[in-house]
Amino acid sequence: MTTRQLAVSVAGILVGGSVLFAQPAVASPPAQVGPVGKRPVAEGYGGAVATVDLDASEAALGVLRRGGNAMDAAVAAAATLGVTEPYSAGLAGGGFIVYYDARHRKVHTIDGRETAPRAMAATSLEGIPFDDAVTSGLSAGVPGSVAQWELALRRFGTLSLGQALRPAIKVASEGFTVDQTFHDQTAANAARFKDFTSTAKLYLPGGAPPPVGSTFRNPELAGTYRRLGREGGDWLYGGRLGAEIVATVKKPPLTPGSTRNARPGLMELSDLAAYRAIERPPTETTYLGMDVYGIAPPSSGGSTVGEALNILEALPKVGMHEYLEASRLSFADRNKYVGDIPGVPLKELLSDGFAKERACLIGERAMPNPAPAGDPDGDYGPCRAASPAQETRTPAEGPETTHMVVTDRWGNVVAYNITIESTGGNGIVVPGRGFLLNNELTDFTFGPAPGDPNLPAPGKRPRSSMAPTIVLNDGEPVLALGSPGGSTIITTVLQILVNRWDLGMSLPDALAAPRASQRNTAQTQAEQGFIDRYGPELTSRGHSFTPTPEIGAATAVEFLRHGRLQAVAEPTRRGGGSALVVSERR
Ligand code: GLU
């Protein structure tokens, strides 16, 4: 047991040498916030779900109540998010799943990340302004979600793809109620949506965003899901739907008179036929005696959260200063070493020796910016400053995706990030099919950047920050969590863990608490509430802040004692999320 474990155990309950259920230091917000039926916190038994959206949470709950398992429910919810949160998620996107298999007490991950076409080169994005690249055929990666759903259901589910798509088909056909978030996201995208005939027709009916409170139907997407259910993923990966995607990417359906330079993409049907979702070993690190599992490359989520936790564990105390500094150092290392390349030094990045070497750079004051990357070479000294020549920077990444957690009566757990990258993806709906294409390839470094592990290459997956995370204690789940937010995903997951375990907040408080995100930049992005709460002390220690309205939109589930589950979503960010349990009583 480390000094830190001892310190925390005073405030918590010590089980088998590790701390569980630290007592909340701050009162939880009321469970009932937001519209009726949409609650950010739910407690009960027999399974639970948290997503950003009531329709999606209800889709998952319905599957659980009809006897489906957590993976069945997660796919059903993901497809429903493709209807109700179409600017964050969809069948033409990608994502990462972390899955706890209760029967075998084993954690698996499924990489459904979009992939660069074979014609993509290191220079393909060079010199293109970021926003121009986003809204183009060039940014669309080979979609991963459908292959990921099929693999996830085949390996761990009980439903067929067609069965799992049914709740989404119902919502797409019958419609959902437009809320403020959907309206605002449509309005924020209107200038580019109107440049594509297919997108304007679907999302700007009558030339304007659908009003709040109206019913939005997407019969074309319902038809697409129906046929996908019948024909399976082959319809996309080499079949007719794939051919339509390729045609749209190569010749975006520009509105007559539009002056937009929507660059054509490089995707071919053969790229779709070659796509595979991949089962990969999770990243693993221990924190305060618990085992924290995450996503390995091509995401940097697992390695960066894990490294930061190891750094924190090597420090004598943990507060917000230490959280920011550990995050700064981990981002320096992520930027230099992590990408979809052979030879990422994952074992060393997650080693205690490397963490100790990095931790001893953290002092009483904020480090000068930028922090250089360390040397994860297996040879660790007591305190070694890295050479300034190894400075790295954190590239721009879009801010939106979505995350869900699902658990079932058997104790299986899913933490799942699904995304189309920017809010609204590349802005281009495939004509007649009711879904947007992703712009995931803008997650690559545009270059020129010699040696950067995240430059584009044929068939390569862009580095992600998505960090669905499952925490076990003695092989049993304790917590599952994740968030959207581009590169702030990593800091949001880290901050929630610090809030929960180090500051002793309840899980609802740990999610609701104001956030900050330090990613090896001079200024730390922070919500105003964070600046109000921690700003004076942190500023006196050399930190400076850029206010930002909102960071992340997390979902989580905690496994309380005696089978009780606590599902948690955001009380207010992105309009608040939806947590549901199968049964409120045992
Ligand atoms: N494209 C992002 C990533 O993979 C996720 C979407 C987002 O939240 O920006 O890290």
UniProtKB/TrEMBL annotation:
Stored Pfam families: G_glu_transpept (PF01019)
GO molecular function ontology, one term from the record: glutathione hydrolase activity
Protein family per UniProt: Belongs to the gamma-glutamyltransferase family.
Biased composition regions of type Low complexity, renumbered to the chain: 366-382
Organism of origin: Streptosporangium album
Name under which the protein is recorded: Gamma-glutamyltranspeptidase/glutathione hydrolase
EC assignment: 2.3.2.2, 3.4.19.13
Keywords per UniProt: Acyltransferase, Hydrolase, Signal, Transferase, Zymogen
Entries under Gene3D superfamilies matching the protein: 1.10.246.130, 3.60.20.40
Signal sequence bounds: 1-27
Start and end residues of each stretch annotated as Disordered: 366-399
Keyword Hydrolase: yes
